[in-house]
Specification:
- The complex is a heterodimer of chains A (143) and B (121).
- Chain A is α+β, with helices and mostly antiparallel strands and 143 residues long.
- Chain A has a single domain, classed as Heat Shock Protein 90.
- In chain A, strand 4 and strand 5 form a beta hairpin.
- The longest helix of chain A has 22 residues.
- Chain A is globular.
- Chain B has one domain: STAS domain (Transcription Regulator spoIIAA).
- Helices cover 39% and strands 31% of the residues of chain B.
- Chain B has four helices and five strands.
- Chain B has a five-stranded mixed sheet, with helices on both faces.
- In chain B, helix 1 runs parallel beside helix 2.
- Classes of the chains: A alpha+beta (143), B alpha/beta (121).
- At the A-B interface, helix 1, helix 2, helix 3 and helix 4 of A face helix 2 and helix 3 of B.
């Protein structure tokens, strides 16, 4: 039987104010995929982290820019693509220090990326210079 | 659709209890940061974050806890965390926050922690 793929998209202005709207969208996607509430919560947090990175680091103060979230569902997984045209911030390059080091340095950098990797099954990042940056995260559905 | 987050402050002796309510994300974390900074600047460094009504937290919120804890302890205080809902507790646990913070069930438990030996980062 051929797999049936469904795609859902959301595009919002680059502002942390819109993170709530993004989470609402992801909750809907998770429910549509038939995920358990605990897995929807993980998906929601991972996407929030990724979009917050784009808004705060890739775009910075450029509130006229937009963040695109595309969710593709098939029978095995939920794939999330987060696309921006910012300065190519690669969250996977943040040094992964341990918590004690971060606390000692009064820093919190890298916690979001750490969460994304723990919450999702796959996290990839692709920068196409001058065109777009795309973060792809995949959560496999439990059978 | 903006995120809703509030902090209600109360005191118990020299301890400040911060009751967190709502969604603590990149949008609302600066509000939480401001409250802790105000307490710290006023010399009130024995803090309890009461999280019974905290329905959501992302790394921006966790980062506020992380970025203040060293200074708070250096000033002779601490920031205890209590009454986490299972959903929020899971996020703290994924990152291993229990190795740095005292996380206990109730405000009374957190107050008891303050009576014990000081914890170092």
């Amino acid at each position: 039987m051929a797999s049936i793929e469904r795609t859902f998209s959301l595009q919002v202005p680059s502002s942390t104010e819109n993170l709530a709207m993004i989470r609402e969208f992801v909750n809907g996607v998770g429910a549509r995929a038939g995920m358990a509430a605990a897995d929807v919560a993980k998906l929601e947090l991972a996407v929030d982290e990724a979009c917050a990175n784009v808004i705060e680091h890739a775009y910075g103060p450029e509130v006229t820019k937009e963040v695109s979230v595309r969710a593709t569902l098939d029978e095995d997984s939920v794939q999330i693509d987060i696309i921006d045209t910012g300065k190519g911030f690669d969250p996977t390059e943040i040094p992964q220090k341990n918590l004690e080091e971060l606390a000692a340095e009064r820093k919190s950098g890298g916690l979001g990326m750490r969460l994304m990797k723990k919450l999702m099954d796959e996290v990839h990042y692709e920068i196409i210079p001058g065109q777009k940056n795309e973060l792809r995260m995949i959560k496999r559905l439990k059978k | 659709m903006a995120t809703s987050f509030t902090v209600q402050r109360s005191t118990s002796g020299d301890i400040t209890i911060l009751a967190l309510n709502g969604f603590l994300d990149a949008h609302t974390a600066p509000e939480f940061e401001k409250v802790i900074q105000e307490e710290f600047d006023a010399g009130r460094v024995r803090l309890i974050a009461e999280c019974g009504e905290l329905t959501y937290i992302s790394s921006a919120g966790l980062g506020v806890f992380m970025s203040f804890i060293e200074d708070i302890r250096a000033a002779g205080g601490d920031l205890k965390i209590c009454n986490l809902t299972p959903k929020v507790a899971q996020v703290f646990e994924i990152l291993g926050f229990n190795s740095i913070f005292d996380m206990v069930p109730t405000v009374a438990d957190a107050e008891t922690c303050f009576a014990g030996p000081a914890r170092e980062v």
